[in-house]
Specification:
protein tyrosine phosphatase activity; Tyr_Pase_dom; Tyrosine specific protein phosphatases domain-containing protein; Tyr_Pase_AS; 62 residues; PTP_cat; mainly alpha
């Protein structure tokens, strides 16, 4: 819900799992500011992709 918080810390990972199952489709992430939940989802995905590709993860670059 808008202005709410996930009930589980695993919720973002469940969302990203669903998104990854549609790899041949374009994914658009949108919100009014992009610094809260939406920004976190994008940052988590970027970090996971970095780790899964075997590259070092530097949080300062996120």
């Amino acid at each position: 819900p808008d202005k709410g918080v996930p009930t589980s810390v695993l919720a973002p990972f469940r969302i990203l799992k669903i998104v990854r199952q549609s790899l041949h489709r374009t994914t658009v992430v949108h919100c009014s500011a992009g610094i809260g939940r939406t920004g976190c989802i994008v940052a988590i995905e970027m970090g996971l992709q970095q780790i899964l590709s075997g590259k070092p993860l530097f949080l300062i670059d996120m």
